[in-house]
């Protein structure tokens, strides 16, 4: 039977593609490593293994306040896959010593490097398959998509949002976790070959080298301003209520190691901030307090609202956050038209180079760096001064080489 079907309008239509085969484990899955003997045995296996080491970590985002690792997956040729429970050990430094200077393979390294560093694991070399996919300008760079693209296999992701702090971990979850490192070595080699063919391998090496010093994004200034719905806050007094409630919720969440949204959802927080009730009866009557969870901390919410209501005017939060950087670009045309013109010219340059070199604009040069240079370029604007500014802002040499001359021209050199 032909795979081409004839629809009602007479035009041939291709039959749906057959589903891809599901990626499966190559060997039986061992038990979770959570005692000293099995841990020492696996470290010994890693020591005699060969080639790079694939790693991954599972956190409990959406369930826990902390971003600690609750499972660490490791795989190396001739060592097999190890699923290590980091909660069972003071740290995993012995594993780091066993790995030595072997290359790490990670997918989306910035997600896992901080929690791996918390348990004493630090790479000396690494290869990030997600970042490599971005440099190749692949349309999608999730691990499952890359496995499909390069290996022709489908990768199940149904447990990606699981609560990995659960003990004991269910067997299907462990199999899912093991699959995340099953083919990373093979995937790495295929992606590296594409990078070399595209003339981008040195770009990748420089970007990977920069990741070795990544320790996290650091605390945000005024993190309470990221509360969903805060744009509906009217006036500085209501902003003070949002801030006080956010800080109260954050303290409770941190103490209980629970994600803040499970203590009081953002929508409920905004409702309380808007109503600003000054007594327990009024607070309890709000729809936001109908659930037993929010009502458990009624006293804390009331204290926060009263504290915000009592603040003097000069201690109320500003309508917009203070910042050392430039204001949002939408305000530039009125406040600094020369800078707005420079930014438009610089963005045109980045867009052109992005297309010319087949790399996403944000990987070619960080947008915030371009905005900072357009707002306040070096004086005088020269290729050398712009290059120095780019390097000082963290740009890699390959990025500077590609953008510095046309960017300096756009900035007025």
Automatic annotation (TrEMBL):
PROSITE patterns: HRDC. CDD domains: RNaseD_exo (cd06142). Residues 235-315 form the HRDC domain. This is Ribonuclease D.
């Amino acid at each position: 039977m032909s795979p081409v079907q004839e629809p009602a309008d007479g035009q041939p239509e291709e039959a749906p593609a057959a589903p891809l085969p599901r990626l499966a484990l190559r060997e039986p899955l061992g038990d979770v490593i959570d005692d000293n003997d099995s841990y020492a045995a696996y470290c010994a296996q890693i020591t005699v293994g060969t080639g790079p080491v694939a790693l991954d970590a599972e956190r409990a985002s959406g369930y826990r306040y902390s971003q600690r690792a609750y499972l660490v997956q490791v795989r190396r040729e001739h060592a097999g896959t190890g699923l290590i429970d980091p909660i069972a050990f003071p740290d995993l430094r012995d594993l780091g010593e066993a790995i030595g200077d072997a290359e790490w393979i990670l997918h989306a390294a910035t997600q896992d490097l901080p929690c791996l560093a918390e348990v004493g694991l630090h790479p000396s070399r690494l290869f990030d398959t997600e970042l490599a996919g971005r440099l190749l300008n692949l349309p999608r760079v999730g691990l499952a998509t890359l496995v499909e693209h390069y290996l022709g296999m489908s990768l199940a992701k149904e447990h990606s949002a699981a609560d990995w702090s659960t003990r004991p971990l269910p067997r299907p979850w462990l199999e899912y976790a093991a699959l995340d490192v099953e083919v990373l070595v093979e995937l790495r080699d295929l992606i590296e070959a594409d990078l070399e063919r595209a003339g981008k391998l040195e770009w990748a090496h420089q970007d990977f080298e920069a990741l070795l010093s990544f320790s996290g994004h650091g605390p945000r200034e005024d993190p309470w301003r990221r509360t969903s719905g805060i744009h509906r806050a009217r006036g500085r007094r209501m902003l003070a209520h949002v801030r006080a409630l956010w800080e109260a919720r954050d303290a409770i969440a941190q103490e209980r190691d629970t994600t803040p949204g499970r203590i009081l959802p953002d929508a409920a927080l905004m409702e309380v901030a808007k109503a600003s009730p000054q007594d327990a009866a009024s607070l309890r009557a709000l729809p936001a307090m109908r659930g037993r969870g929010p009502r458990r901390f009624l006293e804390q919410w009331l204290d926060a609202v009263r504290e915000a209501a009592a603040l003097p005017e000069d201690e109320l939060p500003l309508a917009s956050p203070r910042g050392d950087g430039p204001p949002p670009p939408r305000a530039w045309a009125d406040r600094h038209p020369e800078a707005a013109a420079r930014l438009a010219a610089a963005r045109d340059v980045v867009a052109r180079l992005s297309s010319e070199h087949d790399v996403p604009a944000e990987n070619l040069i960080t947008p915030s760096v371009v905005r900072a240079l357009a707002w306040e370029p070096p004086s005088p604007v020269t290729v050398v001064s712009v290059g120095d500014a780019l390097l000082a802002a963290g740009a890699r040499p390959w990025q500077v080489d590609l953008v510095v001359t046309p960017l300096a021209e756009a900035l007025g050199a």
